[in-house]
Design brief:
By secondary structure, the chain is an alpha+beta fold. The chain is built from five helices and 13 strands. Helices cover 24% and strands 34% of the residues.
């Protein structure tokens, strides 16, 4: 028996909007989602208080759905929080390689290779090609990543907080391992700028120095809510808007 392929929909919206996204995705057939909390930045950010940039709180929703229904789920998410309008948030889709922990899907077959109704069909030259750069650094260093990515052409990003352990981090208190706080920066970037942005992050955040951090790149299948003319053309083809 073959598990159906899965898509990961990542939606980044303003505070208090995650519940709308999850409700809409469930109505379209998704089984749920996971919400993370972070803060966002944009290249044209000008709002400051006492000279300090105002950080906007963000909610990041991870929704894993079967490839067969993901266009419908994506459309419901778009409609629920108006992602096709400026500054309402962004969404993007990542193709998963392997999935575990979904035993409830084991009895499903997905041997049909024919396109399903509502599937996204775009010619290669019409697709917008994006990468997601994920950078994990020590707490307090996300600003270096943000500044470097902006200078290299990125238009914004999202910062998450977390913890990490590594072979170079062995500090202990009362013989208990201290887990250093980390910051995770998500940077969605067009493929033609990926190398330049990644190189700038590597140099500014000193990622080649042990214990400083790590960055990696993931292919993105589809994006929503990035206000470029070409993306708007794609959205019109996909969703008739």
């Amino acid at each position: 028996m073959k598990k159906p392929k899965q898509k990961l929909i990542v939606t980044i919206v303003k505070k208090e909007q995650a519940k709308k996204v999850i409700r809409a995705s469930k109505e379209a057939g998704a089984r749920g989602g996971t919400t993370l909390f972070g803060r966002g930045y944009r290249t044209n950010e000008k709002e400051r208080f006492l000279g300090i940039p105002i950080e906007r709180e963000r909610e990041i929703i991870l929704t894993l759905v079967e490839e067969e229904i993901y266009p419908e789920v994506m459309q419901e998410i778009i409609d629920s929080v108006h992602l096709n309008k400026p500054r309402q948030g962004i969404g993007f889709v990542i193709d998963t390689k392997k999935i575990t922990g979904t035993q409830h899907l084991l009895g499903l077959e997905d041997n049909d290779n024919e396109p399903h109704e509502g599937d996204v069909e775009l010619k290669m030259e019409e697709k917008i090609m994006y990468d997601l750069i994920i950078t994990i650094v020590n707490k307090g260093n996300s600003e270096k990543v943000v500044d470097a990515s902006k200078k290299a052409g990125a238009e914004g990003g999202t910062i998450l907080n977390g913890r990490g352990t590594g072979i170079h981090e062995k500090a202990k208190l009362f013989n208990i391992l201290i887990e250093p706080e980390k910051e995770v920066v998500l940077t969605l970037i067009s493929k033609d700028k990926t190398n330049a942005v990644l190189k700038a992050i590597e140099e500014e955040a000193e990622l080649n120095t042990a214990g400083k951090g790590i960055a990696f790149v993931i292919d993105v299948d589809q994006t929503i809510g990035i206000n470029h003319v070409l993306n708007q053309m794609v959205n019109e083809k996909l969703y008739g808007k």
